[in-house]
Amino acid sequence: MGKIEWAMWANEQALAAGLIYLTGGIVGVAGQFRDWQFAAFGIAAGVFVCVLEYPRSRRAKGTSVERTGQYCFTMCVNAFGPLTRNYYVRAILHAALSVPGGFMLATLLGCVCLGISSLIYLSAAIHGEHWEPILPKAEPTKHVAPSIKQPPQNPPPRPPAEIRRKRTDDPEAASYANPIPVTDEQ
């Protein structure tokens, strides 16, 4: 049984929470609810959380599957260095962003979801996890063995090396000779 990677759970939860928070904020502002300023904050916080959480972290073991188009978001998140890589910082940030959402019904669900993701990030930080970017792998350089400088030019079966050598002084003799005699009989 492997170790649980809490950050993977927190990332999925926080991205969903950001989208819910954003949606609740849009509903609150569009409906001109009382204290709609909290909903406007919910829109800004939801967008920020979505940008922060869209890029997945590289897994400790196994394969890391990146989201479609995550590279530009990865560069944005990676630019802030330890501020965005540390899961203690993310746990505190998500907890702080979720507080204003509790003052309005439209953003309450996003607030609760963001609070849960904050707790999962706290668990990830306690277990020693941190965010690592998934960067594109550089193409490995292929080393050509010294014995194989040029691939074979003719398909197999190839005639022995003595017969295969071409003579360039006589164009008629430079063509390959068939080492196997060909007869009309079958």
Automatic annotation (TrEMBL):
Amino acid composition bias (Basic and acidic residues), ranges on this chain: 161-170
Stretches that traverse the bilayer: 12-30, 36-54, 103-126
Annotated GO MF terms: heme binding; metal ion binding; oxidoreductase activity
Subcellular location: Cell membrane
Keywords from the UniProt entry: Cell membrane, Electron transport, Heme, Iron, Membrane, Metal-binding, NADP, Oxidoreductase, Transmembrane, Transmembrane helix, Transport
Region (Disordered): 140-186
Keyword Zinc: no
GO terms under cellular component: NADPH oxidase complex
Protein's UniProt keywords contain Transport: yes
Subunit composition and interactions: Component of the phagocyte NADPH oxidase core complex/cytochrome b558 complex, composed of CYBB (heavy chain (beta)) and CYBA (light chain (alpha)). Component of the phagocyte NADPH oxidase complex composed of an obligatory core heterodimer formed by the membrane proteins CYBA and CYBB and the cytosolic regulatory subunits NCF1/p47-phox, NCF2/p67-phox, NCF4/p40-phox and the small GTPase RAC1 or RAC2. Interacts with NCF1 (via SH3 domain). Interacts with SH3PXD2A. Interacts with DUOX1, DUOX2 and TPO. Interacts with NOX4; this interaction mediates superoxide generation.
Described purpose of this protein according to its UniProt entry: Subunit of NADPH oxidase complexes that is required for the NADPH oxidase activity that generates, in various cell types, superoxide from molecular oxygen utilizing NADPH as an electron donor. Subunit of the phagocyte NADPH oxidase complex that mediates the transfer of electrons from cytosolic NADPH to O2 to produce the superoxide anion (O2(-)). In the activated complex, electrons are first transferred from NADPH to flavin adenine dinucleotide (FAD) and subsequently transferred via two heme molecules to molecular oxygen, producing superoxide through an outer-sphere reaction.
Family statement drawn from the similarity comment of this UniProt entry: Belongs to the p22phox family.
Stated name of the protein: Cytochrome b-245 light chain
